[in-house]
Design the sequence.
């Protein structure tokens, strides 16, 4: 009796046994293996999973925009009762934009760089027959204003490269909602943005979709974010739905082992710093998120709490005094302008502890890292490593400093040479610093691989054969090759999936207690700070606005800016029964 | 923008001086006495020879010859060829013909090359793509005179739809076949360039976003794929225009086109320094202007380049 059903009782989107595969030279490789998802009108549903779980593929399959050789191999995608999988491309073009809006992941690459913002918004409005003639422009301005873009009418004439990431994402949200679609698919819409910007944009998206009555299908890797933003949760793992239901229920009482691990590893939900000596962390696995790699950050953090009272040797490894860095930049008409990236920054790091530098992009935290590593010269101020000023070092002495201090960078894909095998990559610093002979270097590589919990067979493999987490372990092994005292970690876990992130954080904590390392941990993610750092410096516009111990910062933040950052952590306000 | 153009013109001055000097020096360094060669087997009267040497400043050292020539150039005087005709007149007679030929070739290769490349790129791996790749490979590997002779025989002699040689006024209809032959190699290159560029652009995120907005294919292809794919093609077209002017020598020879190629060839054989340098000077000037136009065209195609300037 479907006649008696009102619109609100009928699912807006019903995915039944959807299968998606990619055609490769070795035949069809399945990416989504028979999933079922039901979304009611006006509801918000989040699909959570790590990279490769099939969540984005599902999103693209719904609007039939699968990349490359991907195609739907079975099942139904019922939108308002109509099977989208059976539509021709021409019919599908009527559905896209008009009935189903789409907000993509990366605001940097999703706007065409050669057309103005206004052109790209107007084109969407015209294509969906929302307005015509002069009304198009009016409508475009309204859409952008709704999406939270101030002075939209003047900024319409500008080009994407003149917009910040947050503003571009607003434009993309505006475009996605421009024809008041009944369903909006948001594929990691804020993963490329700072937490505070993320919060503002998601709040705005929530208000907008509620006002219009648009249902939202939200794709994310962040469990905290999903639970905070969606009523319904679908957890995907290796192309299958492993758990689905109301968000709070899943978070408080996860049934599937994968979900349980996901909840335990979410840094935004953990409370205290990891202490590596705990027995729970003795079994680091290299098989990524596969069987048994159970890392419980909450448990680990509690172990830490007991140890925290233990006395420290009070000795400073790094002392930074009124450090300033001024960059010359090109102004509007080519004249030189000065930009203070780091402004009178002072801090010190005790030996064997972790100091976190936290801030949004542009706050100057990465510049501090470069100054510490002497990859940039400071404009003024002083940096002492082990009590010695590093500014006058040159030649052999500078090489000595580099031996003592090693970096690990954010992107595990960009920081390893694809033409060099893992063993040679790890041995390279030894070669540069002329340490040992061939045999002893080989032995050291094996030892390092063991330290970062990778099998020694990996030494002859190449970076493209490794996963992101494995690559980051290799980067850490390379940094440790020279037995440094200090490791500068610049967003070292930001690009990793939560479970992998938790493993790397645990590994770092273990290595610290084993080798007595001093860490400078640079991140935009306060949630991670809580589990890794002892001291925190919050940076804003080149200055340190707050410096204190982790617990102080989290429990009693003094500055409004720090409070904003804390509030912006997704899932920060969720309380778990577990 | 005017400041940018002005800077570019200033940059062109040393390029201009350098190229003319080099060319003049190379013609000067050619073995043999150009005047003696002019008399063939006969022994010239020494007095006449000395008079001719003085008239063409051939009795002066190289650097003086060059300076005299450059001085004349600045006053708009390109000198007089050995046949007694002012070089300016030869230029005025031959350049329009060659430029007409080059522009026709440029139009053919641009329109056909981009169209075929675009279709190939959008239908990667299909029959059209495969056959266009084979054809372009054949065109690239064949020497241009082979293509010219085959075209001349097939269309001129066999089918009789085109004239085998061009008449002295070189009207546009008669230039179509030589222009097509001249365009063939560049056409093949443009097909390949456009195809690769289109294939790459098609996979970019903003193209998916364009589709997700509800745009039709007929709009996404020209607006979001083609325009973004054109920058490497424009670079190639800019350099190719110079090649068309010079490469016309062979084609002009085969089709008997009364253009720069023939005249320049004769002048080189005779070792006429001023004439050769005059031709090259004009070519360098054209080349510089075309390159400036290409750079300005970049700005039109890509606003990011426009705003950096």
Sequence:
């Amino acid at each position: 009796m479907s006649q008696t059903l009102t619109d609100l009782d009928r699912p807006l989107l019903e995915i039944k046994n959807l299968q998606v595969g990619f055609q490769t030279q070795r035949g069809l490789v399945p990416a989504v293996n028979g999933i079922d998802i039901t979304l009611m009108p006006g509801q918000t549903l989040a699909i959570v999973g790590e990279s490769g779980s099939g969540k984005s593929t599902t999103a693209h399959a719904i609007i039939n925009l699968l990349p490359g050789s991907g195609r739907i191999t079975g099942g139904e995608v019922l939108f308002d009762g109509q099977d989208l999988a059976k539509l021709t491309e021409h019919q599908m073009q009527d559905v896209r934009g008009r009935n189903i809006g789409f907000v993509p992941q990366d605001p940097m690459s999703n706007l065409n760089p050669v057309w103005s913002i206004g052109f790209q918004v107007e084109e969407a409005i015209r294509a969906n027959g929302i307005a015509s003639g002069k009304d198009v422009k009016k409508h475009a301005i309204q859409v952008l204003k709704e999406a939270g873009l101030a002075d939209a009418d003047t900024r319409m004439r500008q080009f994407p490269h003149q917009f910040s990431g947050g503003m571009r994402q607003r434009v993309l949200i505006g475009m996605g909602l421009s024809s008041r679609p009944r369903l909006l698919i948001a594929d990691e819409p804020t993963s490329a943005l700072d937490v505070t910007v993320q919060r503002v944009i998601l709040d705005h998206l929530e208000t907008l979709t509620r006002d219009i009555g648009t249902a939202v299908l939200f794709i994310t890797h962040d469990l905290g974010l999903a639970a905070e933003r969606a009523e319904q949760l679908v957890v995907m793992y290796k192309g299958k739905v492993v758990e689905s239901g109301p968000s709070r229920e899943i978070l408080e009482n996860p049934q599937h082992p994968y979900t349980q691990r996901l909840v335990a590893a979410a840094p935004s939900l953990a409370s205290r710093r990891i202490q590596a000596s705990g027995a729970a962390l003795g079994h680091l696995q290299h098989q990524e998120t596969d069987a048994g790699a159970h890392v419980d950050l909450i448990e680990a953090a509690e172990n830490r709490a007991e140890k925290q009272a233990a006395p420290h040797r009070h000795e400073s490894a790094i002392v930074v005094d009124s450090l300033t860095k001024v960059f010359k930049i090109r102004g509007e008409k080519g004249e030189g302008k000065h930009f203070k990236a780091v402004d009178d920054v002072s801090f010190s790091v005790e030996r064997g502890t972790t100091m976190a530098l936290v801030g949004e992009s542009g706050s100057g935290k990465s510049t501090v890292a470069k100054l510490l590593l002497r990859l940039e010269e400071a404009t003024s101020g002083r940096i002492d490593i082990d009590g010695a000023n590093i500014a006058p070092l040159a030649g052999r002495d500078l090489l000595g400093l580099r031996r003592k201090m090693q970096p690990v960078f954010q992107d595990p894909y960009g920081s390893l040479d694809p033409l060099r095998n893992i063993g040679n990559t790890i041995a390279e610093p030894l070669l540069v610093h002329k340490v040992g002979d061939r045999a002893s270097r080989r032995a050291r590589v094996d030892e390092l691989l063991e330290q970062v919990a990778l099998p020694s067979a990996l030494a002859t493999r190449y970076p493209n054969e490794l996963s992101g987490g494995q690559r980051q372990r290799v980067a850490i092994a390379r940094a440790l090759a020279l037995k440094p005292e200090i490791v500068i970690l610049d967003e070292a876990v930001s690009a990793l999936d939560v479970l992998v992130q938790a493993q790397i954080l645990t590994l770092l904590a273990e290595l610290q207690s084993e080798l007595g390392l001093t860490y400078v941990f640079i991140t935009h993610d306060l949630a991670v700070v809580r589990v890794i750092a002892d001291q925190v410096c919050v940076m804003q516009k080149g200055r340190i606005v707050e410096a204190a111990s982790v617990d102080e910062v989290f429990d009693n933040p003094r500055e409004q800016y720090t409070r904003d950052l804390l509030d912006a952590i997704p899932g920060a306000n969720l309380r778990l029964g577990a | 923008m005017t400041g940018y153009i002005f800077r570019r013109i200033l940059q062109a001055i040393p390029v201009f001086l350098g190229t003319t000097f080099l060319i003049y020096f190379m013609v000067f360094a050619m073995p043999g006495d150009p005047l003696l060669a002019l008399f063939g087997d006969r022994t010239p009267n020494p007095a006449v020879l000395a008079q001719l040497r003085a008239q063409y400043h051939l009795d002066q050292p190289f650097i003086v010859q060059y300076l005299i020539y450059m001085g004349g150039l600045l006053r708009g005087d390109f000198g007089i060829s050995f046949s007694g005709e002012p070089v300016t007149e030869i230029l005025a007679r031959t350049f329009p013909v060659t430029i007409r030929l080059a522009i026709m070739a440029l139009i053919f290769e641009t329109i056909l090359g981009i169209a075929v490349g675009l279709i190939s790129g959008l239908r990667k791996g299909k029959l059209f793509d495969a056959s266009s790749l084979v054809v372009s490979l054949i065109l690239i590997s064949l020497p241009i005179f082979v293509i010219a002779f085959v075209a001349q025989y097939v269309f001129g002699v066999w089918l009789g739809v085109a004239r085998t040689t061009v008449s002295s006024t070189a009207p546009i209809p008669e230039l179509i076949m030589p222009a097509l032959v001249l365009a063939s190699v560049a056409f093949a290159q443009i097909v390949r360039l456009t195809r690769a560029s289109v294939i790459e652009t098609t996979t970019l995120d903003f193209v998916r976003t364009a589709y997700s907005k509800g745009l039709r294919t007929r709009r996404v292809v020209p607006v979001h794929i083609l325009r973004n794919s054109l920058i490497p093609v424009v670079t190639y077209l800019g350099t190719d225009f110079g090649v068309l002017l010079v490469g016309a020598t062979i084609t002009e020879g085969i089709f008997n086109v009364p253009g720069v190629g023939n005249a320049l060839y004769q002048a080189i054989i005779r070792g006429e320094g001023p004439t050769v340098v005059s031709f090259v000077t004009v070519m360098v000037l054209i080349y510089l202007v075309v390159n400036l136009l290409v750079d300005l065209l970049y700005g039109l195609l890509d606003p990011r380049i426009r705003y950096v300037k």
Notes: Chain A touches chain B through 36 residues (CB under 8 Å). Chain A is about 35% helix and 25% strand. Residues 2-264 of chain A form a domain with the Rossmann fold fold (CATH 3.40.50.300). Confidence is low (pLDDT under 50) at residues 1-5, 275-294 of chain A.
